Predict the structure.
Amino acid sequence: AQTVTQSQPEMSVQEAETVTLSCTYDTSENNYYLFWYKQPPSRQMILVIRQEAYKQQNATENRFSVNFQKAAKSFSLKISDSQLGDTAMYFCAFFTTSGTYKYIFGTGTRLKVLA
Amino acid sequence: EAQVTQNPRYLITVTGKKLTVTCSQNMNHEYMSWYRQDPGLGLRQIYYSMNVEVTDKGDVPEGYKVSRKEKRNFPLILESPSPNQTSLYFCASSFRSGGWYEQYFGPGTRLTVT
């Protein structure tokens, strides 16, 4: 069974600094997708960034980028130039299309951006 | 406006009283899913549906039922709620575009079972 682990329950970063959130996963499959979702205090779930496992190039969306290490089963999120609006819970998620179509989420990292 | 709606947003009920949480999307998405969110546990998938009349269990299906009679609707049914089903519930829908299954989430339903 697939698992997703986020080992940092809480983190903080100064405004304008860079922070990296870690995520590791376990799977025996070769084709899958990885996502980072953001949940601000409003509770709304918002997609931050996504990565296809077969793509070696790391995904980037403005200030957000990932470091995808397939062999190590690692999928970390880097937030550059942190802003107060980045304060939120961040969830790493794994999605498989091999037989089942399940989403597996990590337990989340609560990020606080300090002024 | 493209959206996923859930009703009710808040619900307090008693043990054993059947309830339904509705979920509807207006984006013609094939894939729909229900999650529960609990502190320290993240989101856990309850059920998902690949299309009309096609549903499958997620990781925590016990105590829940779903149906997918129409493409836009995916209600979550608790036949006999218990206090351990007190949680924040999210419905989500997803389309496949170039291989992606990007999910759009509803606003959440806070359920309390006493």
